[in-house]
Amino acid sequence: MNTPTPVAQLCEPVAMRLLLIEDDDRIAGPLTEGLGRYGYTVDRVRTGAAGLADAAAAPDLVLLDLGLPDMDGLDVCRSLRARSPIPIIMITARGEEADRVAGLELGADDYMAKPFGVRELVARIRAVTRRTGALPAVPPGPDAMPSAPVAASAPQQLGPLHLDRRTRQVRLDGRDVALSPREFDLLVFLAQDPGAVHSRQQIMDAVWDPHFFGPTKTLDAHVAALRRKLGDPAWITTARGVGFRLTVPGDSPPEAAR
């Protein structure tokens, strides 16, 4: 009698070998480690010439930086596409529309501007491989990309602030407050324990990604935007040298907000 295959085994992700063409060790090291956590094998090279040579070994997908020391990544993309239909995702600090358009027109399958998180990159890799048919789409396994936690709790009321996680709606003094998805996630995280100080690293790990690539100034920008939209900087106060806390203005001694 045949023994049924365990469901977990059926759901294991397909092994993929990625070619990473990236000269910056500060990006390549953590990125290789992060992708390895999701079961990807990453071969990394530092130059366009080395990338073109390694591509001859037919990796499953190429992650291509544009700012390479020996040649422009756009030229690498053009050469790769001329010889193979291999999926290519550009990962670069060039975020201008003209660069994105050029990369996509030269044959890149997707384009990610730094900074970005590993979870988003993994999602892009899966989307590209499904779209291009490079690998059969399979359900993610137990070590696959974790989905963001979904809070099923009742709406939360903090003074005049009404926060509904289920509908992702925020109201202040009875009026709707329009937040970006990341601003909403940041507010939800701080509101889980009002008054508690959360370190910058805790916030980045929870709201962005433990393997986020980019300056933490992006956190300051989102905090500033939240303060502006909530109409009072006292909603989010700064614990100098540590992080941030969410407080109802007037309910606690004010902290210096930046």
What do these coordinates show?
Helices cover 36% and strands 18% of the residues. The chain is α/β, with parallel strands linked by helices and 258 residues long. It folds into two domains: 7-132, Rossmann fold (3-Layer(aba) Sandwich); 156-246, Winged helix-like DNA-binding domain superfamily/Winged helix DNA-binding domain (Arc Repressor Mutant, subunit A). A hairpin with a 2-residue loop joins strand 6 (156-158) and strand 7 (161-164). It is elongated, with a radius of gyration of 22 Å. The termini are far apart.
Quick one: how many beta strands? 12
How far apart are the termini?
Answer: 69 Å
Q: State the fourth-level CATH superfamily of the largest domain.
A: Response regulator
Order of helices and strands: HEHEHEHEHEHEEEEHEHHEE
CATH fold label of the largest domain: Rossmann fold
- Strand order across the largest sheet: 2-1-3-4-5
Query: Which consecutive residue ranges, at least 5 long each, have pLDDT under 50?
Result: 1-14, 136-152, 252-258
Helix content: 25-40%
- Morphology call: elongated
The CATH architecture of the largest domain comes to 3-Layer(aba) Sandwich
Mean pLDDT comes to 80
Gyration radius (Cα, Å) is 22 Å
The main β sheet shows up as: 5 strands, parallel
How many domains comprise the coordinates?
2
What percent strand?
15-25%
Per CATH, the class of the largest domain reads Alpha Beta
Oligomer: single chain
Number of helices: 9
